[in-house]
Description:
This protein has helices spanning 6-15, 29-43, 47-53, 64-72, 96-104, 121-126, 143-153, 160-170, 174-187, 195-202, 210-218, 222-234, 239-262, 268-272, 276-286, 291-310, 315-327; strands spanning 3-4, 21-25, 54-58, 81-86, 110-116, 131-134. By secondary structure, the chain is an alpha/beta fold. The chain folds into 2 domains: 3-134, 3-Layer(aba) Sandwich (Rossmann fold), CATH 3.40.50.300; 144-327, Zinc Finger, Delta Prime, domain 3 (Up-down Bundle). The protein has a 6-stranded parallel beta sheet with strand order 1-6-2-5-4-3, sandwiched between helices. Helix 11 (210-218) runs antiparallel to helix 12 (222-234) and helix 16 packs antiparallel against helix 17 (315-327). It is elongated. The model has no long low-confidence stretch (mean pLDDT 90).
Amino acid sequence: MSALTPAQMLAEIRKGAWQPVYLITGKEKFFQDQIIRALDKKLFPDPGAKSLNRIILQGTEAGLPDIAGAAMSYPMLSDHKLVLVKDFHKVSVSDMDVFLKYLENPQPATVLVLIADGKGAVVSSIASKVVKVDCKPITDWKIQEWIVARIKERQRTFSPDAVAAFSDYVGTDLLMIENELDKLINFKPEGEIGLDDVLAATGMSREYNVFALQDALAQRNLSASLKIATELLNHGENINMLLVILFGFFRKLSLYAALKASGGTHSFTKELGVREFQLKKMNAALRTFNARQLQTVLRNIQEADWKSKSSGEKPRTLMQTLCYGICKA
């Protein structure tokens, strides 16, 4: 059977051309929730029908005959029925013949969605007989591309520096990205979203923000980095959020250094998931830090993060020590 991406499955659902059985795998809950919401909306235009015809089974409790029985029964006061099986990978493989017979001749009024967050014998047994949808997390270097696509769906655009700052600020949590995009659009209902809009919507200062700190550290500017770090903490910024963003930047810088050292032909912007203006800044930083120094920086950030959670040291002291350690690495 075929394999679909979450986007392809959502397109099928919107067209009303869904399949009778789907096997959804992968760890990204955001895509799973998107798919289920889309099915609810399309299958049950009448909310009352949903309560009668939407069945949720747990793989830890239901057997294959239970699943087949729920899927075979006819919908009540509706044209469709939705059967969701969570933790399908935990279902026992006993009575597999009953379930395989259902897969050969599924109930046309039912959409059966099998959600498996892990591998198991039951998943292997039916994987080739159903449509598979892999909800795998988006990799760090593709997150900007995904954000641009999501904002485009809302008929809006980002300036390059705005999407770079936004992606660094929110990280890779897709649900957080969605929520922050909604806030950003409410903040600026029309026109292109620029860097100033991102800074204002997130409450960051134009002069004192984590990206200014990042730039100062990349230039080994100790006095500027100390001043910015102090201002950020004085204005209530969480040290762990600052450390996460700094670690992401220097880890990407370390990867860039490794790619350049490996030789060969590379599309650095694509492989690193950055824009041209970011690559220029990274090139400047690599004139300041070598590969060994970057590894030292990453260890320093990890140590600061550990101490912030366990040692009781004040955030200001930790950030001052970190800034000194990075600028003098």
